[in-house]
Design goal:
The complex is a heterodimer.
Chain A (H helix, E strand, L loop, with lengths): L15 E14 L5 E16 L4 E5 L6 H8 L7 E6 L2 E2 L5 H10 E4 L13 H11 L9 H11 L16 H13 L5 E5 L7 H18 L2 E6 L2 H7 L2 E6 L2 E7 H6 L4 H9 L5 H5 L31 H5 L36
Parallel strand pairs in A: 3-8, 3-9, 6-7, 7-8
Antiparallel strand pairs in A: 1-2, 1-4, 4-5, 9-10
Helix pairs in contact in A: 3-4, 3-5, 4-5, 5-6
Chain B lengths: L10 E14 L2 E14 L3 E5 L6 H9 L7 E10 L2 E2 L5 H10 L1 E4 L3 H4 L6 H13 L3 H14 L5 H4 L9 H13 L5 E5 L7 H18 L2 E6 L2 H7 L2 E6 L2 E7 H6 L4 H9 L38 H5 L5 E2 L5 E2 L4 H15 L1
Parallel strand pairs in B: 3-8, 3-9, 6-7, 7-8
Antiparallel strand pairs in B: 1-2, 1-4, 4-5, 9-10, 10-12, 11-12
The chains are: A alpha/beta, B alpha/beta.
Family (chain B): Belongs to the ABC transporter superfamily.
Keywords (chain B): ATP-binding, Cell membrane, Membrane, Nucleotide-binding, Transport
Protein name (chain B): ABC transporter ATP-binding protein
Chain lengths: 352, 343
């Protein structure tokens, strides 16, 4: 992504700079002598910045690589190539003590509040576990009090500290997961589909909680989700991913109200709108077929096999992620990076 | 095509005061507490609710696939084409299921047999129910796969379920449900597991086939967006009861139950970056201890004394509309300020 996005630079120095990040998972054949026969190109060269106190939303369909990006950011997966610079330092090359120190500041909240909490541990142990690894944050005698504070911060009763995960509902469990993510007072929280598993009425509670915590503790979020409405609600900037690449990126307004990439337009037009009247006046772009396998992405533009605009050029030349030529002079909202040879503005979301 | 002699518009399914409970170690969970609805041929009824609202259990009772024990139908009638299904014997019930009514589930991968080819699974329907030869059944399977939009159906008929993508598997599920030309389809969260772009394709296919065969369709979902796209009528469920029914446009424009209103207010919209979302406070009730009076009262911004003691009946709230709220008129007229105030 070109960092020169005038509307959205809250701080001069980005907290996190991701450059040409790549993750390939090898495909092997044979049992004893494993021979690499190919690779699943889950993430194939993406770049973005994250500033202090802002939320970057990453949207895309299953298999687009968004969760792999999340896992690399928190160090659960080692990148095949590329850099993740935190405060100017490339953390992909770190190990040992230095890595541990960085990880303290980048925490993760997982999607599934059922499988991401150990059923044999009490809530107090789950939320306090980060302190075992980073004892400098909270001295032993202080931990119980800290955990109770955290429970209160996420809106749970501090007396629940000795209960087990199964005694809580899905929404409450997600709050426990968030409290654990907050325990070390990180600067960055990577949230991978944090509200997808929750019921609608509970989802709003958790979204509001995340927004409140951001302003209280000045946290930056990388918010990954497939639900475009939730992402718009919570994000300052949005990146749309397709098959391991970023297709288009910009502010919420630029992406949702002035999309220029055909994939973004199709994605937005497919979102079911909870208003039957708005729906009758909107344009639907129905894509044909499925997302191709990331083991064999199409040549040139990866979206071309499903794109109604595709031409010869698209199969030969991969479009770079930059402000398209036709909008370079413009100062309007269409002036944002979009990886399409034939980018044009098209409004697909009806006015609220 | 046969349609069981039912013409467009006549009630096909008439569920009356259905009650279902689950007898568990922790007590009796009252999952469905007097649900009534009708579906006509060619009509789409959406049943909207959160987890534990009883929307799927009601459908399972209609299909006759309730896990029993622990689940028991304890009251009510399920009239399908004029016959009470609850009074039928096991064998008769089995004939109705599959041939006259069919179900589509959320998770196609676990609903299909992983060790049989899709052609064999589709063809089996014709071999068992219509006594067709294997070869002829295979031919029908290919036709069906073509009809639901599977590319290169002839080549793929010998493939196994795992070789298809999620969207294609859901199409195969739809093909299986349609195979015997049922009069009623029950689709339980049919697109929840799919990506948005694929979701739209599958929903369109379902709606198109429903029109073509004038089937009744019950669409069970938690997604207010999906419902708005396809339903004629919506029934909103909460704690095992229908709390509001209305034609789709009216429900979205002016909900007559505070729960519906809260749901609509609490979803983020695509069209704007919101500030704080309205959030319904608290949690859905535990079905072994449903609050007395109106089950929604502990979470309701309008609740008053009467709500804590008297369960509200389904009040008529206009033509084709009903709301189980003592203060439905207030919700319909001026609820907005109350909700803004509660924000």
């Amino acid at each position: 992504m070109a960092p020169g996005d005038p509307a959205s630079v809250p701080a001069p120095e980005p907290l996190l700079e991701v450059r040409d990040l790549v993750k390939h998972f090898p495909l092997t054949q044979g049992v004893l002598f494993k021979k690499q026969v190919g690779a699943v190109k889950a993430v194939d060269g993406i770049s973005f910045d994250l500033h202090r106190g802002e939320t970057l939303g990453i949207v895309g369909e299953s298999g687009c690589g968004k969760s792999t990006v999340a896992r690399m950011l928190v160090g659960l997966e080692r990148p095949t190539a590329g850099q993740i610079r935190y405060r100017g330092q490339d953390i992909t090359r770190l190990s040992g003590r230095a890595l541990k120190a960085v990880r303290r500041n980048i925490q993760m909240v997982f999607q599934d509040p059922y499988t991401s909490l150990n059923p044999r541990m009490t809530v107090g142990d789950i939320i306090g576990e980060p302190y075992e690894i980073h004892p400098e944050v909270a001295p032993r005698g202080d931990r119980r009090r800290k955990v109770q504070e955290l429970l209160e911060v996420v809106g749970l009763n501090p007396e629940f500290i000795n209960r087990y995960p199964h005694q809580f509902s899905g929404g409450q469990r997600q709050r426990i997961g968030i409290a654990r993510g907050l325990a070390l007072r990180p600067e960055i929280i990577v949230a991978d589909e944090p509200v997808s598993a929750l019921d609608v009425s509970v989802q709003a509670q958790v979204v509001n909680l995340l927004a409140r915590l951001q302003s209280d503790f000045d946290i930056s979020y990388v918010f990954i989700a497939h639900d475009l409405s939730v992402v718009r609600h919570i994000s300052d900037r949005v990146a749309v991913m397709y098959l391991g690449r970023i297709a288009e990126t910009g502010t919420g307004e630029q992406i949702y109200d002035h999309p220029t990439h055909p994939y973004t337009q199709a994605l937005l037009s497919a979102v079911p709108v909870p208003d039957p009247e708005a729906r009758e006046h909107r344009e639907r772009i129905l894509l044909t077929g499925d997302v191709p396998s990331p083991a064999h992405p199409p040549s040139g533009c990866r979206f071309r096999t499903r794109c109604w605009k595709a031409q010869e050029l698209c199969a030969q030349v991969e479009p770079p992620l930059e402000v398209p030529t036709e909008f370079r002079e413009s100062t309007g909202p269409a002036h944002h990076p979009s990886a399409c040879h034939f980018a044009e503005e098209r409004r697909v979301v009806p006015d609220a | 095509m046969t349609n069981g002699g039912v013409r467009h518009g006549e009630p096909l399914l008439d569920v009356r005061d259905l009650r279902v409970e689950f007898r568990t170690r922790d007590g009796v969970a009252r999952a469905v507490n007097g649900v009534s609805y009708t579906v006509a041929a060619g009509q789409t009824l959406a049943v909207l609710g959160e987890s534990g609202s009883g929307k799927s259990v009601t459908a399972q009772a209609v299909m006759g696939i309730l896990d029993s024990p622990p689940g028991f139908v304890t009251g009510g009638e399920i009239l399908f084409q004029g016959r009470d299904l609850l009074k039928l014997g096991k064998e008769e019930r089995r004939k109705v299921r599959g041939a006259r009514m069919a179900m589509i589930f959320q998770d196609a991968l676990s609903s299909l047999n992983p060790v049989l080819t899709v052609g064999a699974q589709l063809g089996e329907m014709f071999e068992v129910h219509e006594g067709m030869s294997r070869k002829k059944a295979r031919g029908r399977a290919v036709e069906l796969m073509e009809r639901v939009g599977i590319p290169a159906a002839r080549e793929r008929v010998g493939d196994y379920p795992h070789q298809f993508s999620g969207g294609m598997r859901q199409r195969i599920m739809i093909a299986m449900a349609l195979a015997l030309r049922p009069d009623l389809i029950i689709a339980d969260e049919p697109t929840t597991a799919l990506d948005v772009t694929v979701q739209a394709q599958v929903m369109d296919l379902l709606a198109e086939l429903q029109r073509e065969f004038t089937m009744g369709l019950i669409l069970i979902t938690h997604d207010l967006g999906v419902v708005a796209d396809v339903a004629d009528t919506i029934a909103v469920m909460y704690a095992g009861r229908i709390v509001e029914t209305a034609p789709v446009h009216q429900l979205y424009k002016a909900p007559a139950h505070p729960y519906t209103r809260g749901l609509l207010e609490s979803i983020p919209r695509l069209g704007h970056k919101g500030r704080e979302l309205y959030a319904i406070k608290g949690l859905p009730p535990n079905l072994t201890a449903i609050p007395p009076g109106c089950a929604f009262h502990p979470r309701c911004p309008l609740a008053r004394d009467i709500c804590r003691t008297d369960p509200p009946p389904l009040y008529e709230a206009g033509p084709d509309r009903a709301s189980a709220c003592h203060f439905w008129r207030e919700t319909l007229d001026g609820g907005k300020e109350i909700f803004d105030g509660a924000r």
